[in-house]
Amino acid sequence: MACWNKGTMEGADLQFYLTWLKEQLRLPNNEYLQTVARCLQMMLRIDEYRFAFVNVDGISTLISVLAGKVNFQIQYQLIFCLWVLTFNPTLAEKMNSYNVIPILSDILSEAVKEKVTRVTVATFRNLLEKPEDKDIIQDNAIAMVSCKVLRHLSLMENHKSDDQDVLEDVEFLNEKLLAEVQNLSSFDEYSSEVKSGRLEWSPVHKSEKFWRENAARLNEKNYELLKILFKLMESTKDPLILSVAAHDFGEYVRHYPRGKHVIEQLGGKQLIMQLLTHDDPNVRYEALLAVQKLMVHNWEYLGKQLQTNVGIGLGVEG
């Protein structure tokens, strides 16, 4: 009825139905999951329903289900839902704030069914074509590069599809992403990695030059990247992510003169201190180094203050 009537479902009825569909998707071991996903596929063909679904936190639900272990049919249906959402430029601009690109990249790397591959690359294409904000298009492209989408596309080219749409989408993505790689700065790479929540020991973390040139940029957009790092430290149990995050805080403090003050203001010092007793030795080691950098930074600051005060004293006496 919602899809085939002359009029569209509205108001409380629409919100109730979409909320019910969303809750059914989250229901553990739901034997009717495929049917629920099919209903949602039909609903989201209608643009008015797309906004209503987003407003009941629908995208987060799709991503949450896709991040779990579901069969290829459910993967296809739920990615189809994301795909139709991205035809709306406004929704396409919001999409990767839900971490859509890392999840779809994971699925693409493991996909064995062509229809899953097809709808995934079509979604990626929309994320580079439909947004009207060029900065968002660039952010999406950088996120795809960081998530190794180019490598997946290369593998797809080696196993040529008979589907012309897939071939065209792969060609389009390759062209756009290779162009982005040429312009990709080390800070773009770092920023994309932090925003993805998937920290690893990529070269930028250990680069003295990177931190010397970019430490102050972690203050941009009201300390956006620092706040993401703090959130990761609070929420993750992954020792690798915790180790890298602790290391990055230490480097930030070492290379940015007011770093210690900023870290303390944002509540990060306590988080780092807590990692000193972590079960993983690598986490403890990186946390200890970060704390040492905090302390050294403090002593260097005090030393400079003493030198200034002594100089002023000598000047007065002279």
Low-confidence stretches: 313-318
The computed structural class is mainly alpha
Order of helices and strands: HHHHHHHHHHHHHHHHHH
CA-based shape: globular
* Alpha plus pi helix count: 18
Count every beta strand, where a strand is a DSSP E run of 2 or more residues: 0
Q: Classify the helix fraction into a percent range.
A: over 70%
The span between the termini is 92 Å
Strand portion: under 5%
Measured on Cα atoms, how large is the radius of gyration? 24 Å
Query: Main β-sheet: number of strands, strand sense, barrel status?
Result: none
| pLDDT averaged over residues | 89
Description:
Helix 2 (33-43) runs parallel beside helix 5 and helix 15 (239-255) packs parallel to helix 18 (281-317). The protein has 318 residues and is mainly α. It is built from 18 helices and no strands. It is globular and about 75 Å long.
Describe the structure in brief.
The protein has 318 residues and is mainly α. 75% of the residues lie in helices and 0% in strands.
Topology:
Layout: H1 11-26, H2 33-43, H3 47-55, H4 58-67, H5 72-85, H6 89-94, H7 100-110, H8 114-129, H9 134-146, H10 149-158, H11 164-183, H12 186-196, H13 208-214, H14 220-235, H15 239-255, H16 259-265, H17 268-274, H18 281-317
